[in-house]
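Our preliminary data section would be incomplete without showing what the modeling component actually yields. Below, a chain of 389 amino acids is followed by its predicted structure, encoded as tokens that our downstream tools consume directly.
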Amino acid sequence: MKRFEASEYAARIKATRERMAKAGIDVLLVTCPQNMNYLTGYDGWSFYTHQIVALAQDAGPVWIGRAWDIACVRFTTDLPERDIVGYADEYVQATDRHEFDFVAETLRARGWGARRLGVEMDTYYYTARCHERLAAGLPDARFVDATSLVNWVRIVKSPQEIAYMEQAGRIADLSVEAAVEAIAPGVRACDAAAKVVAAQIAGTRDFGGDVPETIMMSSGSTSSAPHLAWTDDPYRAGEVTAMELGGCRHRYCVGLSRSVFLGKPPAKLGDLAKLMAEALSEAFEAVRPGALAEDIHRVWSGVIARQGYVKKARIGYSIGLDYPPDWGEHTASLRPGDKTVLQPGMTFHLVGGMREPEWGIQMTETFRVTDRGHASFSAVPRQLFVKPA
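Predicted structure:
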């Protein structure tokens, strides 16, 4: 089940330690599932209980988590037994003790209790109680905010990571094709969503996939809302369905969005779809090594401004290895003020959605920065898909 060569993990750890040194961190405590995966290969869906990977400048990485999940560590990583530490089930969701009491004890036993510890303060899986118990258990430690430290190491992808994202891109195309085929008057939205999820998991004859995150498939007036999933309502003639789908391969995600209209679309909606396609194309042409993240936003915004439109949200973000609840890497964004310099191997989801009070339209695509420009991970036509009512 190991997805990369040992040499690639070694390079990732080396790069992480270099960033730790610059930040004055002796031991990094990683709680993000994607960062744990990136450094060790660990791929267990055990993040509903507290777990960490501890990486010191001179030791580790060490996995510390629920003992019940040690088998997952053995199957997905090459960590030696001495660096796999499990806590008893009496810690799980208990009221009289906490998993990070055990983590603190383990760090003290390793001689790390009085070191400078980097913690991912602003993440989904490191709670206020986690930090409270860790600080109480390690009164001699000094804590450094290491939020996104590993994320910035991840932002430039290796050739093997790109290969997995190319496969995820093919699955993303299949998910959109499944949705377009399934959406029809009278069909329940949940039934169409089931076809999409089936396509995401089945993948191709050569490789299977996974569900990247919940899929967004809002229709009619609810299409004006950006983050609504499906319902069990039937599709109706004269309505648009705005979809944010995507593909996933070994947890490498590619976002892809298109929209479907049943019947003859209003002229305004058809014209906006063409404008979205034009904005995507021109923004992609601006992608090149040395460009800034904000440059892509400026080009995209300039295109829609020709027709009097303004979008106040960011129009993209770095994407790659991720777990729920989202697939963004929490690093660079395509928005004003982001001075991130684009480099070959960076990957972004360019989000081209526009919404009116009564409807919305989605047209997004994931790309990578190449030596000369960009390459899209998808081949689905940039258009509003129109089906007979």
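The chain has a mean pLDDT of 96. Residues 6-154 form a domain with the Creatine Amidinohydrolase; Chain A, domain 1 fold (CATH 3.40.350.10). Preliminary results of this kind motivate Aim 1 of the renewal.
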